[in-house]
Design brief:
Elements (H helix, E strand, L loop, with lengths): L12 H13 L4 E6 L6 H10 L7 H5 L1 H5 L1 H4 L5 E8 L17 E2 L8 H20 L3 E4 L7 H8 L3 E2 L5 E2 L7 E8 L18 H5 L17 H7 L6 H7 L2 E3 L3 H4 L19 H4 L3 H4 L4 H7 L10 H15 L5 H6 L6 H14 L1 H14 L3 H10 L1
Parallel strand pairs: 3-8
Antiparallel strand pairs: 1-2, 2-7, 4-7, 5-6
């Protein structure tokens, strides 16, 4: 979003108070401002993280490193960044669902509408107001853009980056969606927030796959959110049991944060869980073809992973369920058109009915031409 006006200086309290009021009216729960150069350590940390390969197959992280590292590289005219947070706190503890092994656990943020769409539309509303009030140039970003939102948000004072690398807020715990408005205005900045994690390591200890090599560092390659959403191939054997019934994302490190005791349920109804996504039955999900998958997850971010990766994840959950009654549904997926699905159907069958799996292995190997699926059968033969 651009205007023809050149840079302006507007650090007055009246403007800032009006900006905060407009943002709250638009639905944001917290708003802070930071200078564009407020996170000088970010480029070095990003470079080290990428060099260690901890971004996994997320190649765009490396491709956009230069623009991601510094806001002024992304847009040289940036003087201030308005960082806004929208609370998506759940109305129940998402970890309770992990005990219901016949049900699918979907991350809290994905149980209703895609937050990118909602947050961006609200950001644009605030940005339009700022342009109208000052004539400044602005650009809006949600997390699909190459912006290091969490360190920027911490520098702005929305909270601090916890040991799980996510933003923690004293008012909203670990449940904040972030968006930002880059502007040519020089707005009075807010102060960075102190780190209040102390000696606590609940988030680190809660991780089922030990994805944190040390506090404040994440190896995405071991993270269940990465594995179930970003990873396009077969999921390594070592991660399948720890996944449990988590079929899309993982809330464990977020949900155990002690600061969540101050969190509130999201006031935005679009972030309240759709009833059919609270605890869907694995038996129903695994039968989805592409059309049924798209219809069921209409408007949800889950739809972006595609049917095949989704059923891959569901079959891992079924293999972990102990529900022998689900074996006929697993058998039906052995002939699926997707190798991702067939491979995890083999694994799930081996977990629930190992004798049946061994009996089928020799014949299956004679007809299977995908190497990944063959490896699963060979493990059983």
């Amino acid at each position: 979003m651009r205007t023809s006006t050149s840079d302006s200086k507007a650090g007055g309290r009246d403007l800032k108070a009006a900006l905060v009021a407009e943002a709250r009216e638009a639905g944001f729960d917290i708003i802070r401002v930071v200078r564009a150069d407020a996170v000088p350590e970010a480029p070095g940390r990003l470079r080290e993280w990428l060099a260690e390969g901890r971004h996994g197959s997320m190649g765009w992280m490396a491709e956009t490193e230069e623009r991601r590292a510094r806001p002024t590289t992304l847009w040289p005219d940036t003087r201030s960044i308005v960082v806004l947070g929208m609370n998506y706190g759940p109305d129940e503890n998402p970890l309770d669902l992990l005990e219901r092994r016949d049900r699918a656990a979907i991350s809290v943020y994905a149980r209703n509408r895609d937050y990118h769409d909602l947050v961006k539309s609200r950001l644009k509303r605030v940005a339009r107001w700022l342009v109208g009030a000052t004539g400044a140039d602005v650009k809006v970003f949600v997390d699909t853009a190459p912006v290091m939102e969490k360190p920027i948000a911490a520098a702005a004072g929305l909270g601090w980056q916890g040991k799980h690398t996510n933003l923690v807020s004293r008012e909203f715990g670990s449940w904040l969606f972030l968006g930002s408005i880059f502007t040519t205005l020089e707005i009075e900045p807010d102060e960075a927030h102190e780190d209040h994690c102390g000696a606590c390591r609940r988030c680190l200890d809660a991780c089922p796959t030990q994805a944190f090599p040390q506090p404040y560092q994440l190896d995405a390659r071991r993270c269940i959110s990465y594995l179930t959403i970003e990873h396009k191939g077969h999921i390594a054997l070592e991660f399948r049991k720890p996944m449990g019934n988590r079929i899309y994302g993982c809330d464990d490190c977020l949900a155990v944060c002690p600061w969540n005791k101050f969190a509130q349920q999201a006031r935005e109804s679009a972030f309240h869980a759709r009833e059919e996504l609270r605890a869907p039955l694995l038996a129903e999900l695994v039968a989805f073809d592409d059309a049924a998958f798209r219809a069921f997850f209409s408007g949800s971010p889950v739809k972006r992973v595609g049917r095949d990766r989704f059923i891959r994840n569901v079959l891992i959950a079924i293999g972990n369920s102990g529900e022998v009654a689900l074996v006929p549904l697993v058998l039906a997926r052995l002939g699926d058109g997707s190798p991702l699905v067939r491979a995890m159907a083999v694994w799930a069958l081996g977990e629930l009915a190992p004798g049946e799996a061994r009996n089928r292995a020799t014949d299956a190997l004679a007809h299977e031409d995908d190497e990944g699926v063959r490896e699963e059968w060979q493990r059983l033969s």
